[in-house]
Design brief:
The complex is a heterodimer.
Chain A: H1 9-37, H2 54-60, H3 63-94, H4 99-113, H5 116-126, H6 133-140, H7 154-182, H8 186-194, H9 199-210, H10 212-227, H11 231-236, H12 248-258, H13 262-292
Helix pairs in contact in A: 2-13, 3-4, 3-7, 3-10, 3-12, 4-7, 5-7, 7-10, 10-13, 12-13
Chain B: H1 11-17, H2 21-48, H3 52-55, H4 70-76, H5 82-113, H6 119-126, H7 128-131, H8 138-148, H9 154-178, H10 182-190, H11 195-206, H12 208-224, H13 227-232, H14 241-250, H15 258-278, H16 280-291
Helix pairs in contact in B: 2-15, 4-15, 5-9, 5-12, 9-12, 10-11, 12-15, 12-16, 14-15
The chains are: A mainly alpha, B mainly alpha.
């Protein structure tokens, strides 16, 4: 570490203070308010009577919340491996800097920078049973006999969202993995070539193990994003059919801003925060460790 | 298989292998990947320049029958007018960029260049928005904002977008300042420069790539953010572009105007693609330092 020890302590704090104040004012205090609100029966119309842990007890009996949480976990458990494996495959495909490979990389990454609302509406159109070009393509290729009504079935709707999100974010993992692959000492790989290790052996036994830290971090970042999913379901499925595609955040949104059960929504938010905290602590710990290395 | 997909091989080695069947297979896969990933955006673009009737045709056609800008004309005149919505999004993004730079640059400087007791605690506090997802605190923020008249204001939304972006921005600025050699600073100390002059005359000019990266991420994430805008901007003159998209789909009488929808999708993604393609290097390096280092 090369930090120049300059002047008094207070000067350093002076530079950090505005950001600290901002975080205190707009994150920590609201979080305190959230915790307090979670112990009341507050609604948008009023209320606010202290009811202790009543809301938390109620969560235990809220089948809708558990279904939404389970759905979110399933979504995360299905999507994350797809993103990581496909992302790694694309990184292997495009890791060196030929023109075609750089072009492939740039194109695969493009959807990462567009909005989730834009990509969700784009795919909502592609999946439509009447005007959707994906259905038309599948019919033209004789994969299906007639257009599928994707959003009428919870399973198909789930896969429609998974497909659209894979398209949207697979480039994120890819870019991280390319950096990992490019940072591997070329002598190790050349030695393996001399030893007669074929391409796939090198990929599985050298490149993947040496990239494991980045794979772990990318998995965590990706999983946190999926656990907080909202936009894509709000736009593509509206939680349907029959409320079977609500995510945790979507359920909180429904309670807080549609049914105006603010106190109860606050309790749900606290539970969600604790779940995310487990992931993000791991993430920050890992980041700090690789920094200290 | 050969190692044609691997960067770390000697160029001569790679060149000798370039014409093998495996290399052709890799090139073919790359082109297929480009086609699959690019086609949704290309098809959306083509749909946006169909006539409204053609865009709503059942079954749909891949290509426009005739060129028409009536979908764009419709979006431009939609509700309060496209200019209002693009104006809202641009102003929110500009304020978010300004706030992120104004808070993160000094904070990064303080954390990188001063040895204060409790510095790491301060750093962890500044990362609080990662541990407390903003989705969880939107209810108290909404109620607080309602009290002080910040609901339906661009300033209020910019505050929320700054919360989202601040941990990454501070992390990046700290790393940028730490990378500047201490010798450069020591010369300034000899010359008797104050810490503030050192920040503005030496550190900021040397950290321009970091500042550009912070601004770039602030722009893209603010422009695309959906949930906070959905909750805070509920008047049809205060919508941002992502909310405009959803209301274009909702349309006037329930039937989706597919042509106008694809026109609005294209309008929403053009700024992101343009900024990303122009500043790709900064985007990728920011992504890597944010998630990996």
């Amino acid at each position: 570490m090369n930090r120049t020890q300059t002047s008094g302590q207070w000067r350093g704090w002076l530079y950090v203070a505005p950001a600290l104040l901002f975080v205190a004012l707009f994150v920590l205090i609201p979080f305190g308010q959230l915790a307090a609100m979670s112990m009341t029966d507050r609604s948008l119309l009023g209320g606010g009577r202290f009811i202790g842990l009543g809301n938390y007890v109620r969560i235990g009996n809220d089948a809708g919340f558990w279904r939404a949480l389970l759905f979110t976990v399933k979504y995360t458990a299905v999507l994350t491996p797809i993103l990581m494996i496909l992302g790694f495959a694309l990184a292997l495909l495009t890791a060196d800097n030929t023109l075609l490979k750089r072009l492939t990389r740039t194109i695969v990454f493009l959807p990462v920078v567009i909005g989730l609302s834009s990509s969700s509406l784009l795919w909502f159109w592609l999946f439509d049973e009447q005007v959707g070009l994906l259905n038309k393509l599948l019919v033209d290729l004789r994969v299906i006999a007639q257009p599928i009504v994707w959003f009428a079935s919870a399973d198909l709707a789930f896969w429609a969202v998974v497909i659209s999100i894979t398209w949207k974010v697979v480039g994120f993992g890819m870019v991280l993995f390319i950096a990992a692959i490019q940072s591997i000492d070329r002598e190790i790989l050349e030695a393996a070539v001399v030893d007669g290790a074929g391409y796939w052996r090198r990929a599985f036994f050298i490149i993947v193990p040496l990239s494991r830290r980045i794979i772990l971090l990318a998995t965590l970042v990706s999983a946190i994003g999926s656990m907080l999913a909202f936009d894509q379901f709000y736009i593509m499925t509206s939680g349907g059919p029959r409320g079977r595609t609500f995510t945790a955040v979507y359920w909180i949104y429904q309670n807080s801003f549609v049914s105006f059960r603010l106190g109860y929504g606050a309790a749900l938010s606290i539970v969600l925060t604790l779940i995310i905290l487990a992931f993000s602590t791991l993430q920050i710990g890992l980041t700090a460790r690789s920094e200290a290395r | 298989m050969t190692g044609a997909a691997l960067a770390p091989e000697a160029p001569a080695l790679a060149a000798a292998r370039r014409r093998t069947p495996a290399a052709f297979a890799v090139a073919a896969i790359s082109i297929a990947v480009i086609a699959v990933v690019a086609s949704p955006i290309v098809l959306s673009g083509l749909a946006s320049i169909k006539t409204a009737a053609d865009a709503a045709a059942i079954p749909p056609h891949y290509l426009p029958r005739a060129l028409s800008f009536e979908n764009y004309a419709k979006v431009i005149r939609f509700q309060a007018g496209l200019a209002t919505y693009v104006g809202n999004s641009s102003l929110v993004a500009a304020m978010t960029i300004a706030a992120c730079l104004a808070l993160a640059a000094p904070a990064g400087y303080g954390l990188a260049r001063f040895t204060m007791r409790g510095r790491e605690v301060a750093f962890l506090l500044l990362l609080a928005p990662i541990m407390i997802p903003y989705q969880a605190i939107l209810t108290p923020l909404y109620l607080d904002f309602a009290k002080v008249g910040l609901v339906n204001t661009r300033f209020g939304l910019a505050i929320v977008h700054t919360i989202l972006q601040l941990p990454f921005s501070i992390y990046l600025m700290r790393a940028s300042f730490e990378a500047i050699p201490r010798e450069i600073e020591e010369a300034a100390v000899m010359d008797g420069c104050s810490t503030w002059r050192r920040l503005t005359r030496i550190f900021l000019p040397l950290a321009v790539p970091g500042l550009v990266t912070v601004a770039l991420f602030a722009f893209i994430n603010s422009w695309n953010e959906f949930l906070a805008a959905l909750i805070l901007m509920n008047r049809d003159t205060s919508f941002t572009v992502p909310i405009l998209l959803v209301s274009v789909r909702a349309g006037k009488f329930g039937a989706v105007d597919w042509g106008a929808l694809q026109a609005s999708v294209i309008i929403s993604i053009i700024p992101c693609l343009a900024v990303y393609l122009a500043l790709q290097r900064y985007y990728i390096s920011g992504l890597l330092s944010g998630a990996v280092k």
